[in-house]
Design brief:
By secondary structure, the protein is mainly α. It is about 55% helix and about 10% strand. It has a two-stranded antiparallel ribbon.
């Protein structure tokens, strides 16, 4: 199993193949369209992330001490962004997720190429993933 940093480095290398931001946006859209859609039953207000301009639903479950995320958005680029976050953070322990420094966001130039509202949405997604991780960590400590 790759570490969070190894996964971030893979993402950075993937985006490094493109110089043009239109190509990088296309890569995000492709990543988003590869995501398995959420069950319509999961698209409720309970799983909707506050602070996103687009609608983003995020589910998390704890299996064998590891956190697994699933998400969907009604916006193509946002779907790609959440797909990247899932790729990097899913399948790790709550503590690893809480301790992760998500440097790939700046390294691939994502933050500077997003509108302020999308950038806030990105932070809201990361925050929600950490909230789930924290809740699961508490549950594991029992």
């Amino acid at each position: 199993m790759s570490t969070i940093n190894e996964l971030q480095d893979e993402v950075i290398a993937e985006f490094g193949d493109f110089d043009d931001w239109m190509d990088k946006y296309q890569l995000l859209i492709d990543l988003g369209s590869e995501q398995t859609p959420l069950d319509p039953a999961d698209k409720t207000d309970d799983y909707l992330i506050e602070g996103c301009q687009s609608r983003v639903w995020l589910r998390a479950e704890l299996r064998d001490g590891l956190v697994f995320f699933r998400a969907e958005s009604d916006a193509l680029i946002v779907k790609g962004i959440v797909a990247l976050l899932i790729r990097v953070l899913s399948g790790h322990t709550p503590r690893e997720i809480l301790d992760a420094d998500l440097y790939f966001i700046d390294r691939i130039g994502l933050r500077e190429h997003l509108s302020p509202t999308r950038s806030n949405g990105l932070l809201a997604m990361v925050k929600q993933m950490r909230v789930y991780a924290l809740a699961f960590e508490q549950k594991l400590k029992g």
